[in-house]
Amino acid sequence: MRFLRRLVTTLTITMIAGLVVLIALFVIRFPLTSRTSPALPSEITLPDGVSARAVTFGPDWYAVVTTDERILIFGLDGTLRQDIAVK
Predict the structure, then answer these.
(1) Residue 69 region, left (φ>0) first, then alpha (ψ -120 to 50), else beta?
(2) Cα separation of 84 and 82, whole Å?
(3) What are phi and psi of 73, to 5 degrees?
(4) pLDDT at residue 40 tops 90
(5) What is the pLDDT of residues 76-85, one digit of tens each?
(6) Pair type for strands 61-66 and 52-57
(7) 50 Cβ partners below 8 Å, 6+ apart?
C-alpha cells in the first residue's frame, strides 16, 4: 500500500511539473509584444456587388476572398494587384 501511495504521489508531481513546463513554454514562445496587427488602409474598395468572406495578410499585401469565389489581392496602399478566380 505504501508503494502505491508513493507511486500516485510521484505521478501527481510529474503531471504538475509537466503542466508548469507547458505553461512556461507558451509564455516564452508567444510573448504579448509580438501581437501587432498589420497596417491596413482606412477603407477598402471592393468591386460593385461583391462582399468579403475572408481576409488574410502578407508582408506588403492583403487578400480578400469574396462571396463570388474570387481572391482579390491588394497592395498596402489599397490598389488592386491581382484578381484570381477560384474554380
Answers:
(1) left
(2) 6
(3) -105, 125
(4) no
(5) 888 889 999 9
(6) antiparallel
(7) 66, 67, 68, 70, 72
